Amino acid sequence: MGFDRVIRGGLVATAADAVLCDIGIGDGRIAALGADLPRGREEIDAAGLIVTPGGVDAHCHLDQPMADGSVMADDFYTGTVSAAFGGTTTVIPFACQQKGQTLRAAVEDYHRRAAGKPVIDYAFHLIVSDPSEQVLGQELPALIREGYTSFKVYMTYDDLKLDDRQMLAVLSLARREGALTMIHAENSDCIAWLTERLEAAGKTAPLFHAASRPAAVEREATHRALTLAEIVDVPVLIVHVSGAEAVEQIRLAQGRGLRVFAETCPQYLFLTADDLGGDGFAGAKCICSPPPRDKANQEVIWSGLANGTFHILSSDHAPFRYADPRGKMRRGSTASFRHVPNGIPGIETRLPLLFSEGVGKGRIDLAGFVALTATNPAKLYGIYPRKGTIAVGADADLVLWDPARAVALTNAMLHHNVDYTPYEGMRLKGWPVATLSRGEIVCRDGALLAQKGRGRFLTCALPPAAASR
Ligand code: DUC
Ligand code: ZN
Ligand code: ZN
User: Fold this and answer.
1) Are 344 and 405 in contact (CB under 8 A)?
2) How far apart are CA 250 and CA 232, in angstroms?
3) What is the DSSP string of 315-336?
4) H-run or E-run covering 194
5) Cβ atoms of residues 295 and 247 within 8 Å
6) Which of 64, 316, 317 has most ligand 1 atoms within 8 Å of its beta carbon, as the pocket-test mutant?
7) For ligand 1, what atom is nearest to the CA of residue 154?
8) Where are the domains of the chain?
């Protein structure tokens, strides 16, 4: 029995090593790895290219209903097409419970939103915003057992936040059920107080978003989140860590032997708070939370990627159009930063940015790149080894990189439905030239070859890292 496809002669990179070899693909899976494999029905010449596992973007927001009336620009079609062009083959967005809504209704609604649209495979995290007795006693345990094994909780945002007591209740359920809790760590009351003072002083421009959420706000909440997790004795993952002060808390806890996982995002490597101060309202394009910090903090984040503090790098793609009454300009171009939807697009640029500026500039090695962007997220969220690696039996989710391709990033070349990229004009070296999902070529040399809706929903196993001791 021959192979459906053979990828021939690429440098095949995993989180462990990189080897020049062929990849034989059959029935959507990797069937063989080795030198001089027999010819396949189709041959892909990968000489001079690097082959990595398809990226797993374990923190992105697609078509998520928003309580403030803003509307995300990307649905499960545009978002996954954009992801695929950027070398990502699995996305894990969030089924978000609105307060008063059952978790089950949130999940069902999110499946309806996804139906018939994704071009790559996808799983769901949950967002628990209303941990009622019914949710904690019945819905959440049932959903975890059905394969929704990770959920995010917020310490800020009025429509989503939990208080410490609710956090403890949710964390102890995670411990009992073996689920992984992702925590957005910012101190809500401090943000509200600072925002009021800034607005009273007329400081409402986008730049002041950063001043309303200084590093201390993130540091305190990170410390508190880790303390709550320690009290319950449960592993947690701190999401979108922005800088040195939160990193210090995480390293302290890790050094004390607590099982603390951490995620960061490209915006904390490539943007600073100054980017929120662009002409007029333009800084709104870079409003996200936590906000980008400064160059010194960027260096600390780079070190954390290299030294193992961080386990995953996700996009936190939260797509709002800029010149749009449903997006960043929801309340016009003179609105207070408080009314600007939080989030920036980045589902397509996540991997190219880290490949070029991380691997290309020697800040991380190729194995580290694969670990941070594919293998670790797959392991942390219970879809490994089907996803996140190149091994016999794994899904043939693969990316072919041309390490020599020079690209000047423009929004026009991206495939999301957002009218800007915060990285406009950046010069990168290295680009994904083909992406395969379950052995099918989804995109190649700028052309989309996938059928809408071909992506499959993945249930997640209990994450081994979240198992209680
Ligand atoms: N912050 C979040 O917590 N979620 C989406 C985007 C953002 O900036
Ligand atoms: Zn968040
Ligand atoms: Zn997010």
Assistant:
1) no
2) 17
3) --B----SSSTTTTTTT-TT--
4) helix 188-200
5) no
6) 316
7) 3
8) 3-53+395-448, 55-370
| Closest alpha carbon to 25 in 432, 387, 437, 373 | 437
DSSP for 419-452?
A: S--TTTT-EEEEEEEEEEETTEEEEETTEE-PPT
Cβ neighbours of residue 37 closer than 8 Å, sequence gap 6 or more: 3, 6, 8, 22, 23, 24
- Contact indicator for 355, 369 with CB cutoff of 8 Å: yes
Give the pLDDT confidence score for residue 1 in this predicted structure.
62
Q: Which ligand is nearest to the CA of 59?
A: 3
Q: How far apart are CA 400 and CA 11, in angstroms?
A: 9
* Amino acid found at 331: R
Atom 6 of ligand 1: nearest residue by CA position: 343
Q: How far is the CA of 38 from the centre of ligand 2 (A)?
A: 48
Q: What is the pLDDT of residues 405-438, one digit of tens each?
A: 999 999 999 999 999 999 999 999 999 999 999 9
The pLDDT tens digits for 296-346 are 999 999 999 999 999 999 999 999 999 999 999 999 999 999 999 999 999
How high is the pLDDT of residue 464? 87
**For domain 55-370, which architecture applies?**
Alpha-Beta Barrel (3.20)
Question: Which tokens belong to 328?
Answer: 């960043």
d(CA 348, CA 448): 14
pTM over 0.85: yes
Q: Order of strands, edge to edge, in the sheet holding 236-238? A: 94-96, 125-127, 150-154, 180-184, 236-238, 260-264, 312-313
| CA 53/CA 49 separation, integer angstroms | 13
DSSP state of 175: H
DSSP string across 51-116? EEEPEEE-SB--S---TTS---S--HHHHHHHHHHTTEEEE--EEEPPTTS-HHHHHHHHHHHHTT
User: What are the backbone angles phi and psi of residue 166, rounded to the nearest 5°?
Assistant: -65, -40
CA-nearest residue, atom 5 of ligand 1: 343
Give me Rg for the CA atoms of the chain: 21
CATH, domain 3-53+395-448, list 1.10.3470.10, 3.40.50.620, 3.40.430.10, 2.30.40.10 = 2.30.40.10
Instruction: Pick out the chain residues at pLDDT < 70.
Output: 1, 278
